[in-house]
Amino acid sequence: MKRVGAAAAVAACVLVAASGAAAQELVLGIFGGTFADNTRACAVAPFEKATGAKVRFVLGSSVQNLAKLRATKGSPEIDVAYMDLAIATQGKGEGLLSTLDTAAMANYGAIYDNAKDKDGRFVGMMYGASAIAYNPKLVKTPPTSWHDLWKPEFKGKLAIGDISGTTGIHFVIAASMINGGSQENTDPGFEAIKKLKPSVVMMYSQADQVVPLFEREEIAIAVWYPDRVGAAAAKGLSVATAFPKEGAIGILPTVSVPEGAKNKALAQKYIDQVLSAETQKCFAEKQYGGPVNKTVTLDDKLAAQLPYGAAVDRMHFPDPETTAKLLPSWSERWGREIAR
Fold it and tell me: With 50 as the cut, is the pLDDT of residue 55 above it?
């Protein structure tokens, strides 16, 4: 009987230990591909080492992650949600995101103000942008302004994004801003892009379509993403990023803790790891994501390829609610005036 009692006691201890270990699993709703791979290398590995927790990925886009939070409102499977700014803003408006205890995050104070939600429901984890990409072999003087895209030497040598994608939307806003308009008043932008049409080789709908155009030197310049430029340049393509003096249009992937998350304290520790200078620098080097931590120092070559330093200070972040409201009319006008 004593042996049976001892065995039962050991079994109970094992069950308690297993239960404790299970409670230390953190579930991330995260983007796939190299983003997930580099997150595991830069953020998850040091986090697991420091906490003893295990991290599990549930892959999905921003829209898919928001849909999961809606479907499981109040009792989410996901402990940390990765979503782009516009989608995170929707989730916040629907009451799906909890308030972060930013005072408990050692790295929060080092984050740029434009990466912080004023209500503390999410925080940006890297900067992306719509900026100018160019071939240094063909463009001897690097562009410095959005206005440079209208120069006659780029006629038949330019690619821009279609309105169905982020760079197309952002280019409408940028063209409007530099011609006296704004996000709300895009008439000047549409008029300017109409004049640019003879220069355009392709209005791409997928970012990867730009790579072969640069490879075959069918284009010399494009409105494109710095992280795509960095990845292509690392593979040997002659391409570089220029951040316009008027400011690139910013893209901000965010991290948040869903309302009702089972492991909120652990989730906040993970977010603090994501915001750390160590992880931010690693992600800049591997993913070409601009660091949101102001203390990160990059070498000159890498810094030139990313939203970093002064380029961050100049970036414009469109109001996501305004974009959502106006996009249907922009898309209709683009189809009528630009795409034809």
Answer: yes
